[in-house]
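Batch manifest, entry 17 of 40.
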Amino acid sequence: MAFSFAEVNAQSDTTEWTCVMGGNKAGFLKKWRTSDGFYHEWFQYNDRGRGDSTVANYKENEKGFIVELEANGKDYFKKPVFEKYKNAGGMATWENNAEKGEMKLASNASYVPLKINAGSSFKNFFATGDSSINLIPSGKQKLTILTSVKLDDGGTLSSFACRAPD
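Output type: structure tokens
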């Protein structure tokens, strides 16, 4: 089953993506930033009465890595879900429905939430020298260019993939 997201600017401070499935609106993602530097995302999706409904609030550092996250809502089967993450003073702490952990960080790293997606930006990959980032609680991911096309205006359009480094 295919679906697509169409970006629509709802108002000056909010960006809205609409999920269309079978020609019908099936969900949305709304994102906005407040004066305290936090981003807020509201995601809702309906698939025959099932589907996620979550709200996430997060803050990024200057390189695009999330340093604080608090999110909650319902998963696809309408069960309660939550995520909490904080990176302060070189110590990362996280908690969700299945785990609670902490680890010392030597450099920036990207937290991978269990059930709630938030902060879907690739700018943190571009802030590293080799386009790879460390993941929390474990792992590493690299952004690689699949294809690039020169545009008539002199710009470049590229498609990317995220995968484990070689």
